[in-house]
Amino acid sequence: MAAPSIPDASGRSLKQLVLGRKDVQDLSDTEQELAPDLMTVNMGPSHPAMHGTVRIVLTVDGERVVAGDVQPGYLHRCFEKESEHATFTQVFPYTDRLNYVSPMINNCGWAMVAEKLMGLTNEIPKRAEYIRVIVSEMSRMTDHLTCIGASAMELGAFAVFLFFLKAREWMYELLEKVSGARLTHSYVRIGGVGKDLPDNFHADLTLCLDQTVKVLAEGEGLLNNNKIFRDRMAGIGAMSRADAIATGCVGPIARAAGLDYDVRKDYPYSVYPEVEFDVPVGTTGDCYDRYLVRIEELKQSIRILRQCLAQIPDGPVMVNDHRVALPPKQATYNTIESMIRHFKHIMDGIRVPAGEAYAFVEGGNGELGFYVVADGTGRPYKAYVRSPSFVHLSTAAQLIHGHLIADVVPIFGMINMIGGECDK
Amino acid sequence: MSAKVLDALKAAHAGAIESLETQHGDAIAWIKRDQLLAVATWLRNDPAMAFDAPVFVTCIDRLDWKPVDVPVGVPVYPHSAPWTDESGKPRFEVVYQLRSTTHRHRLRLKCAVPEHDARVPSLSSLWPAFNWQERETFDMYGIKFDEHPDLRRIFLYEEFVGYPLRKDYPKEKRQPLVRRDDLPINPIKAEGGGHR
Known about the structure:
Chain A is mostly helical. Chain A has helices at residues 14-19, 29-32, 79-84, 91-96, 103-118, 126-154, 158-179, 201-223, 227-233, 241-246, 251-256, 263-266, 287-311, 329-334, 336-347, 388-393, 396-400, 405-415, 419-423; strands at residues 39-43, 55-61, 64-71, 188-189, 192-193, 355-363, 366-374, 380-386. The longest helix of chain A is centred in the first third of the chain and has 29 residues, at 126-154.
C-alpha cells in the first residue's frame, strides 16, 4: 500500500484526515493489489506452536510459504561438552533432559552404549531387561500421547489434549512410583536399573492400561473422522518413501511414509524379540498418516506392556559385576574394601575400557543413538547423541514449502520436535 | 555381516583405504580425504552396498587423547591411521555413519583431518540429511565442508567466536552476545535477491 500523502482538507473524509488512510473503494486499482514483493515473517521462537525453541524465518507470497529458514538452537546447552566432563553415571540426568517427554528411553540408550563398550550387553539380568522394556514402552506412550494431544489442541481440539494428558499423567504417576521422579527419572543404570519395581506395580499398570485404552477410544472418536481435523491433516506435509530414507527420517515419520524401519524389529535389542508386536506402516506419508501411525503404536505399546507383565521373571535387577554395580550399603558402611570401592565408583566413575561404539534404541521419534569414544577413564572422551528430532526438523523447510502459513502448525506438530533433544 | 562390507570395500577401493577395523561389531573404514566423495558415491550406488540411509556426522578432536589400560585388540589412535601430513598427526577425525535399508548393514567412515587444513568434501549432495549435520559439525568443531550448499552455524549464533566442542575450548568459558548489524534478517531472501 502506498504511503499516505499529506492530507489536504478538501474532499477527504474525517477518517482519512485522522488515520491517514483511505477507504477501500477510494483506492485506485493498483493500490488495491497487495504489494508484489515477497514478505518475510518470523514464526517463533515466541510462538505457541513453535514450542518456544525454534524460529522459522518464512518467506511468504501472500499466505503461501515460498521458503522457510528453520533455525534451531534456542535450547542448546551443549550436552556433549557437559558429558565429556561428567562420569558415565553422571550423564544419566543429562539424558533425561534430551527428550524430556520420554526420558526412560534416553536412559536406556546411554546405558546400552556403555554396556556395549564394556562387553556387558548380554550379561544384563533378564528382569532388568524386562523392566527397561516396560519403562521404555510407557515412555513411548507418554511421548505419543503428548504429540497427538498437543497437535490436536493446536488445531482447536482442546478436549483431546485434556484427555490424553490425563492418560499421560497416569503414566507419569506410575513412573514416579518406579523411579522417584515424575519427569527426570534417571532410573536406568549401567548394568541394570536403579531399583526393583514397587509393590503393586502389576495391578497399577494393568489398571492404567485398561483406562488408557478407553481414553484412546475417546480420542480416536473425536479425531479420526473429524472433518476439521482431517482437512487440516490429510494431504499436508506429505513425504515420499525415498525422501524419508535420503533425509534420514526414522520412527513414526518414516513409517508413515511407508518405510518399515523400526530398531526394535530390524536390530533387536533387550528382550524385544521375546514379545510380539506389529510395526504400523502408512501409505501417503502426510500428517494424517503420522497421526494414525502414532495411534497404532500406542496400541502396540499396550500390547507389549501386557506381555511383559505376564512374562517378567523374578531375579536381580543389577548385573553382578563389581565394575558397574555399587557394593551393597550394608557392606559399604561396615567394611573398608567396600567403602573404598564405593568411593572410587562415585568419584572416578565407572571405568569404561578404551574404544568406541554406537548404540541405538527406538525412541519416541525413531532411532535414538549414542556414539561414545572412551579412553579408559571414568569419563567419556567424546559423546555424541544422534537425535531424531534434529534430523526430522531438517526436513521441515521442505515439508512446509508451498503450504499455507496455517499448515506450518500441524506439520510442525507431527514432526514432534522436542527442543531438548533437537538442540542438545 | 560387517566383515562382508569391509571386504567388499577393500576389493573395490583398496587404494582409497587407510585402514579397516571392527570395534564391538561396528565396521569402521578409514578413507583418504581426497577419495572420500568417490568412495561414498560408490557405497550409495552399488547395489551390493546400497547405503541409502544416512545416520549421523560428527567429529572427534584427538588433541588430548591419552588412553589408559587399552584392551588387547583395540587400536590406539592415531596409530590405526598411518596417514600423517608434514605437521605431524592429524588432530580431527570426521565420522560418517551409514545404514542400508535393504541389507540392514552399517558402516562408519572416518576421515583424518589436520588442524591447519580442517576441511573435508561435503557428502550432503549424496545424502540430504547430512546438510544439517555437517552444519552442526562445522558449528561445534570448525570443520569446513567443501561444496556444502549452506555452511552456516546452526545451534549457535553467527556472532559466536570459536568452536565449543574442540578440546581447547574451556567448558566454563562464557562470551557475551555482541550484536552485529551486517547479518541478513532472512538469509534465503538475501542471497536470492528476490524471487520474482
